[in-house]
Structure to design on (350 residues):
């Protein structure tokens, strides 16, 4: 040993962590809500729940990450949108039950803290929270030298929301005749990237800077497209029409996730002919020779969220969503169940 050993000698730079906090402070402040107490730097984020607004409040919570989509951000050295993906994956699970996302905390593990990179990631998370209407009230950045390479990182988030008990959405509200309203995805979102990376990089040998005519942009730009944040649109929709359930289309695909909100005695019939999946899904299927059933189980196929609404409100729901910038259409209906499937796809894609 040639001299005193410090935490920095072991690879953990406390000063860099503090610098990252200072760089992210302004971005985090933009996501605040009036109920937030204090600011960054506390041991816990504080949120004053105004109980006078609710009769029988139920808290909803969700946690998630963005999976191996992080590898794309690292390869491109672009870290400003991965936080949007994180927020979307978390808050759009909360809104499924009708909950309003209130606040979110994040966790970032990295091999080496680069303050500017961490601040950029957190700025994306804060922007996602601002879009979703929830506050980013705290988080943790952990430096793990020896466990992660210097340029490696992963992130996760957890959020809490609230909904009146008698306003909870779910299978108990769904009935025969309900319409299945589809909301378009912005692309792959943050699911299936292990499959997608294997096909494009290992099997096809494509590079991220490859321009793909079918996509109208580079492969990297397509794969890093942020996940749509549906939560504020869903909350406005349920205030305007008779929504019975939402389904967030993530791992497990369209049929698998819709089935989670369908009662045992019913089935949701979804017509593939009502939409055309974006080109990225066709490319994945063709380059990887992926069977359609597997493709539909792993990827969202162009639908990121589903609303199940009372049939008389279907057209109004579509109109309202389209007016807010979310492309929507009636993709199917709920009917009495005559087979083993709680939800299934029929027809062929346009």
């Amino acid at each position: 040993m040639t001299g005193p050993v410090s935490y920095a000698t072991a690879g953990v730079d406390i000063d860099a962590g503090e610098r990252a906090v200072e760089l992210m402070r302004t971005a985090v402040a933009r996501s605040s809500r009036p109920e937030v107490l204090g600011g960054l730097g506390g041991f816990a984020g504080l949120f004053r729940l105004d109980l006078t607004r609710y009769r029988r409040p139920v808290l909803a919570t969700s946690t998630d990450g963005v999976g191996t989509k992080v590898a794309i951000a690292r390869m491109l050295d672009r870290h400003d949108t991965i936080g949007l993906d994180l927020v979307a994956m978390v808050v759009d699970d909360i809104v499924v039950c009708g909950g309003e996302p209130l606040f979110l905390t994040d966790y970032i593990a990295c091999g080496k803290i680069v303050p500017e990179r961490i601040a950029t990631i957190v700025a994306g998370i804060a922007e996602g929270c601002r879009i979703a209407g929830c506050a980013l009230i705290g988080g943790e950045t952990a430096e793990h030298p020896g466990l992660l390479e210097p340029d490696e990182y992963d992130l996760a988030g957890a959020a809490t929301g609230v909904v009146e008990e008698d306003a909870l959405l779910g299978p108990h509200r769904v009935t025969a005749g309900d319409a299945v309203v589809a909301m378009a995805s912005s692309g792959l979102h943050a699911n299936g990237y292990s499959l997608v990376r294997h096909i494009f990089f290992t099997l096809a040998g494509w590079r991220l800077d490859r321009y793909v005519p079918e996509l109208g942009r580079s492969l990297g730009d397509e794969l890093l497209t942020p996940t749509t944040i549906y939560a504020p649109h869903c909350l406005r929709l349920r205030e305007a029409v008779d929504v019975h359930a939402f389904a967030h289309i993530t791992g497990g695909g369209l049929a698998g996730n819709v089935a989670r909100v369908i009662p045992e005695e019913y089935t949701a019939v979804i017509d593939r002919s009502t939409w055309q999946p974006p080109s990225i899904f066709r490319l994945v299927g063709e380059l990887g020779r992926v069977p359609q059933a597997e493709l539909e189980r792993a990827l969202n196929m162009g639908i990121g969220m589903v609303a199940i609404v009372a049939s008389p409100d279907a057209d109004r729901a579509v109109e309202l969503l389209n007016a807010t910038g979310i492309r929507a259409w009636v993709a199917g209906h709920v009917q009495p169940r005559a087979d083993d499937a709680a939800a299934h796809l029929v027809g062929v894609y346009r």
In short: The chain has two domains: 11-45+52-167, 171-346. Residues 11-45+52-167 form a domain with the 60s Ribosomal Protein L30; Chain: A; fold (CATH 3.30.1330.10). The chain is about 35% helix and 25% strand.
